[in-house]
Amino acid sequence: MSVLDNFDTWKEFLSNRLEQAQSEGMSQQAVNNVAYEVGDYLSKSVDAKNNEEAVLRELWTAASKEEKQALASTMVKLVQNQGNTPQ
Question: Domain range spanning residue 35?
Answer without folding.
Answer: 7-80
